[in-house]
Batch of 3 targets.
Target 1
Amino acid sequence: MSKTGCFYCDKDEQLTNLMIEISKLPSSILYLNRDQTHKGRCIIAFHSHKRELFELSEVELTAFMKDVSIAAEAIQRAFKADKINYAIYGDLVSHLHFHLVPKYEGGPEWGEAFVNSPISRLLMKDSDNRERIEGILEQLKIVRGI
Amino acid sequence: MSKTGCFYCDKDEQLTNLMIEISKLPSSILYLNRDQTHKGRCIIAFHSHKRELFELSEVELTAFMKDVSIAAEAIQRAFKADKINYAIYGDLVSHLHFHLVPKYEGGPEWGEAFVNSPISRLLMKDSDNRERIEGILEQLKIVRGI
């Protein structure tokens, strides 16, 4: 049963059915989206429960966007994406999070907004998820210089 | 004829057919989207030609996201939106810009990703656009404390 009513805060089964933790970052957690229609699609969630970017202090906003930028670069490098799409929707699941969606020329929804369906369209085996996570972790280290 | 091949840089008719300038901000320009399916929908474009958030320096990223945050708050306040959606796509028009899309409970695409059609779905009279721009400018002043 949900403790807070927010699965990003509870980190319960509702969350793990949708995504797999890749790494904690200074002000966020980066997850691999189980729907891998777009190779390397991730979600990055702010570490505490806020709804809008303008609810963050300047220090929080700077730190969060640094995490978002680093994660996007790592994803781009890991999969040689042609463009990263970044989106905060959250009308219903309002805990502040960006969808980070790598796009590929000739691939799904190139040149259009990516589909944001609650139903996974392309699920993968655990070993394949693991491989993608390892690829992102490797690039995260390089981008962060650690 | 396009000078740079980017209408955000050229600020030509291709741009003015899609949007109307509201205000220059320290590192960006805020525009009212002519498609007002979502009351108060705007676009905020970085002042120079970059493609990805991670191409910005830390100083540029901080400044741009401060503009984005301020603009989103002004839009939310002007129209009492229930949630702001923020999205960078740009597979084809890659000059860094966020769609800032106010969402309303019971309104278009509440609880879903907003439709990002290149075809305007709800165009308004100039006087109505002007009224929305004035509403945003008024709130921008308050949010920026000027």
Note: Chain B has one domain: 7-144.
Target 2
Amino acid sequence: MYKFNKIEKLLKSAIIPIKKKELIHINQALGRFLAEDVYSRIDIPPENNSAVDGFLFKNKVLKTNIYKKFKVDSELNAGEKLKDVSLYKNIVKISTGAHIPKGFDVVIMEEDFVINEKIIYLKKKNILKWMNIRKKGEDIKKNQKVFSKGHFLKAQDIGMLSSLGINKIKVIRKIKVGILSNGNEIIEPGKNKLSHQIYDINRYTLLSLLRNNYINVLDFGIVRDNYKKIKQKLNSLKNKSDLIIISGGASSGSKDYVVKIIKEIGAINFWKVSIKPGRPFGFGMLKKNKPILILPGNPVACFVIFFLFGKKLLNFLNDNLSYKPEYYLVKSNFSMKKKIGREEFLRGKTFIKDGKMYVNKFNKQGAGILSSITWSNGLIRLKSNQSSIKKNSNLEFYPYQND
Amino acid sequence: MYKFNKIEKLLKSAIIPIKKKELIHINQALGRFLAEDVYSRIDIPPENNSAVDGFLFKNKVLKTNIYKKFKVDSELNAGEKLKDVSLYKNIVKISTGAHIPKGFDVVIMEEDFVINEKIIYLKKKNILKWMNIRKKGEDIKKNQKVFSKGHFLKAQDIGMLSSLGINKIKVIRKIKVGILSNGNEIIEPGKNKLSHQIYDINRYTLLSLLRNNYINVLDFGIVRDNYKKIKQKLNSLKNKSDLIIISGGASSGSKDYVVKIIKEIGAINFWKVSIKPGRPFGFGMLKKNKPILILPGNPVACFVIFFLFGKKLLNFLNDNLSYKPEYYLVKSNFSMKKKIGREEFLRGKTFIKDGKMYVNKFNKQGAGILSSITWSNGLIRLKSNQSSIKKNSNLEFYPYQND
């Protein structure tokens, strides 16, 4: 039985990250993994500029004017080319974002003046040099490293790339992930169901969980509990994708052929883990760098294991080896006993009361109760060495983050 | 100056949700909004079934056998049709998920027996009726309401729909959102930049933030600070999308025409709010139910305001009026003073130390510092009535949730 902490290491050491790159426009780059470090070729801001709508001064001139009355004699808007500095008289009306001509060093906000057409009277007292001026390069400096290879590009990162003037970047090529369900009992939704059959859940959940910009998802359908058919199918698929995810058929029943067949075709790296829900969960290779993730048939166990390890595996494949799921600390609103020696992941829902953050667990924690997943907003982690959970104790909470 | 809490109400009352539906396959339904309530037509599980690989008993028979030795005379796998109940002898080997024939009421796990071919000897003592049996309908009951109209469909919800046998559902039609940048200073990335120009950030960030399955994003480009051109553009766009988002040009500089023009074409519902960063932020209507969101030109303010209100607006348009962003409570790892009377949203990054969760703020909080957004993993909310933040005090933290 493999321990939780061991599995990450096993996955990491088994995976050879995909190195193939492609050059794409930043408008297509959301949710892709960078294939190269990104450096800035410019300063941001490119020049000193005004942080507010106001008036532009030379600090020296300001100090010598004891009446605090000024005549405004020019205007400078964002995006306007700077004229020869000598053409700017002492006082310039300036808009947010406009670049500061050389020699000027103070911007004072409009509301700090009494304004009478071209004549302005300064009310504010404490005037500091460089006030309301954003300095050249204060956000990003020229030649600074902005993102590292393997970085997952979020919306704000696309904005950052654009601000650097970069419209095309190299990302890891899309990875192909094939999804397969195994079982005699499962049928497609929309069809009429006999009483001993159930509709496929895992394939539809996984197809949706994998609908990311860096993945081409391939739907490999349902394969029945038939030794020959499973072997044929896995053999035929091993060159069609970078990763195969199969759910079901890995238990120890007489019709559970999946693990046996993978051992014959390739190798099983691990099988059976001390995680609840999570049995039977395994991982193997159909051939060199053709990993196969074997998820439990129970829909809750399938979801939980994919959430814990599937995402990691996908990040490792994209050379993002530092990936860790985000978690928060919350207080338990329940108490329970627990078996020592395995990690447990409960379906939980957070709430706030009297300035504290609590979590409830779903009342039915069975591996088949899909409502527990649709009801909850994340997983509660109970660690291997815990034997009981007391009310109000601190728990790690892993939000699903998929909306 | 509009207060934070007032804005949500103003947005909600101004928006007429889109009611048009379309029938789509569940494989296309991830990230769409349900246009109808969903009820289950079946029980889940459809029949009593085994939660484990084990042996199936009648509790009565078990009680009368004092030797605890049994002969296994049949086998029942998941997905097998049940034979006439009378054909099953007392002891049946059963696999996980297999349906329980009438009259049987106990499943005992394999590991609780000594197994010698067909003869099994029971080691376990406390045997309870219905042990290891999942009851028909324990997850979902026939005719139960599973999802409500306006529900946002996540991956696990697609799995749930599939498990109900539903392959097609009615969702709100995709909404069209047009993005526009305003300013003389901004140019497209990839082009050569003059010293007084900056690359467009907001349009690229927003195009990425809006790349959701329920949205068709339309890129309306950059419009210059020219009264005629802006008016022409807004007039030409008002029938082309369900929502327009424009950034920049809403300050009070002499070249800031956006608010003036919207007043002429339609109406401004509110403008200027007591949120930092967030000025100038406004909202109006180009005509009946053609809302326009006016975001600040500063990239941080633009991102923060979209995060706080843009997502709400999009949910309201999809009839999901109960939408609230998720937040967590964390402890401040900094102290600072704050102006009373406005909400502030700092860019923060969480970390865990000694079993407590803390947040750091980015060292430069200026509205132009885009690094603060790419560095942080969420926003820290400082409430209107706070005048200072002490170290270790509780703060609301809103994770970006976009990876």
Note: Chain A touches chain B through 110 residues (CB under 8 Å).
Target 3
Amino acid sequence: MPILVQKYGGSSVKDGDRLKAVARKIAEHKAKGFDLVVVVSAMGKTTDQLIQLAHSVSAKPSSREMDMLLSTGEQTSIALLSMALADLGIPARSFTGWQAGIQTEAYHQAARIQTIDPRRIHAALSQGEVVIVAGFQGVSIDGEITTLGRGGSDTTAVALAIALGAERCDIYTDVPGVFTTDPRLVPEARLLPEVTYDEMLELAHLGAKVLHPRSVELAKRFQLPLRVLSSYEDRGGTMIVSTLKDTPGAAGMPGSLETGRVVTGVARDQGIARFTLSNLPNRIHILSEVFNLLEAAHINVDIIIQSLRPEETTEIAFTVQENDALRVLEVFNTSAHPDFQSVRIMYETSLDKVSIVGSGMVTHPGVAAEMFRLLTQAGIEIKMVSTSEIKVSVVVEAKDSERAVNILHEGFHLDRLEALHRVENINDI
Amino acid sequence: MPILVQKYGGSSVKDGDRLKAVARKIAEHKAKGFDLVVVVSAMGKTTDQLIQLAHSVSAKPSSREMDMLLSTGEQTSIALLSMALADLGIPARSFTGWQAGIQTEAYHQAARIQTIDPRRIHAALSQGEVVIVAGFQGVSIDGEITTLGRGGSDTTAVALAIALGAERCDIYTDVPGVFTTDPRLVPEARLLPEVTYDEMLELAHLGAKVLHPRSVELAKRFQLPLRVLSSYEDRGGTMIVSTLKDTPGAAGMPGSLETGRVVTGVARDQGIARFTLSNLPNRIHILSEVFNLLEAAHINVDIIIQSLRPEETTEIAFTVQENDALRVLEVFNTSAHPDFQSVRIMYETSLDKVSIVGSGMVTHPGVAAEMFRLLTQAGIEIKMVSTSEIKVSVVVEAKDSERAVNILHEGFHLDRLEALHRVENINDI
């Protein structure tokens, strides 16, 4: 039987009633003849409550013990979901990360999956059981419980789908799919029936919190069909694919050009901090030294700018998530490396990043210029810029970001995209 | 370094403040030069809340998934306690049941420990870490999470103490030790500085909820010094030993006789159901058939009475915990065995068991007669009787049990026991 992997996020299983609704949804798919593997997150705000609990006993809880603590959240969900399924007469079996054979790096709170040994899952499926797997967690080779970092349940689902050779991975969440931008910011935002892996990757990285970026990268690498849809309503959601489908009557033309989608979406990433390190020795290796240090501390760096100048010292600017800011300071203040002994560190917080994304952008020069023009016209100061083939990002003050999103959404005519006509087809998948 | 095993119950770790208090207590013992292994239960009412949650999604949750669910309670505690210790500068490492090498039968919700592989614990101790182990849980040979049944954390602690060759196992709880009876029922109840394994075993089985009986049995078999004491105050608690210490000036005489302790305590076990099976074929194997069936369903039977009569049919009466009553009915109603096809089942609930316990009883005949006289004088109906060398139990109506306990406590002069004088010695251990 074909295997379908489904993932339900925390809001989809936030209480007993929602768990029972999810169980009914699983039962429907089971009846359609799929072997089902279901990945679940911790219920509702459980993870946040556990973090609070940790901070009530320790100023700085260790990563190892945080993983021990947080992994209980998903374990609770899987047990309850299995019970709810059994109550509907559907045999189900729950597995923690270690039981599901999910082996990760020996790193806590942000471990990457190394291998999956799917034997126990296959054994359960072959007995006709629905398999429920705890998202977000795994086990290291030493038998230590690890977690994949927040949002890691998406990655668990995609990794399992690949390891099991699943037909597709469906990510159920609390929104109907991927929108041209956050509908809470822009009421005219439209649901996108299809986006490419690359677009989704940019959108995911850029704060469209629908999917964890690692899961999209993984799906792209293995060309796994991935779908995002609501666990609350029966709209078709958003399919994430390699290339957009051609519209009828335009055979052979890439969909992104044909449908006129140059810009697919506008994303906002809140809580950015910008660091400027100055008085660094102007040596060829200085950039990699800086980022090796940050990498070793597992701090994700986003936009990076190095000034090129013929002086003895140089300057490097970069952005990180605001909640990593203190750790960045710690990294450079405690480094024994001679290059950082006289470094000057400046930083600015309360910044947001606003980005436009679209796989059609690569063939349409001038999109970035249009973006800067729209923002500058509105008197919004652009503090940093970064571009890729399919996106342009700007860092602006947090107070300006909502306005920037609205201006760009309207300026690139996203409110007029004729995108919804494909939903019926996707619903049939 | 000598190893000390400590166990803290749910009320001792019910919130962040209590967890921090426990961490300070552990730090004190660590400073005394012990290698410490600490077993923790789930916080406060966590287990009850998880059971409620299970019943909110399923009318009859499976045992396997209940174990998956309930084992999260202790996992939460061990992580938090390790964090609290680290916050005091004491390196600590938590282990779930499977990480601690606690292998049990492949039976859910009431598994027995088969073996303990202490390698990970020894490795952590040798690095100077305090080891925190999740009580109540283990793992089967197939990698299934199991639990030992409620109160099983005591058993975890004793089993670990034996496997590790610990000096002693200290069970911290919310009462100062073992009393002559429940102080909530009898204000004159006295703390017992010492009881024998056998006395404790009877008291534990009889509803003195200080220690889980399995843990006492295990400690007795391996002659492990066991102590029960309060995590809230610094009284010496109750030592559980093979034979009571001789009092000074009475060398060679068994302590229980010397101190005049014929009856050590009065216990009450609430929520008893009495079954009478009649119209059973009067064959020699009928008793074992009945109890094989109950054993297979893991239903604990307490008092058993078989009528001896020269007829074709016979009658067997027994008591079980009231919450097993429905399962008893199910066992006999679904049995295909020909002997049970025409069985008549009668049962009575709302019964309590009241018992007197004392290792001196064996050398003092007439204690049972005195007990019956005291109860009958007070107009309390005795519905069933059971005796062992060191205890006499009677089943009475629940409405009479509190009065029965008071009458017996006074009638056997337990309020006048000069027991507390030994506390100082025990405090020095």
Note: Residues 246-259, 419-429 of chain A have pLDDT under 50 and may be disordered.
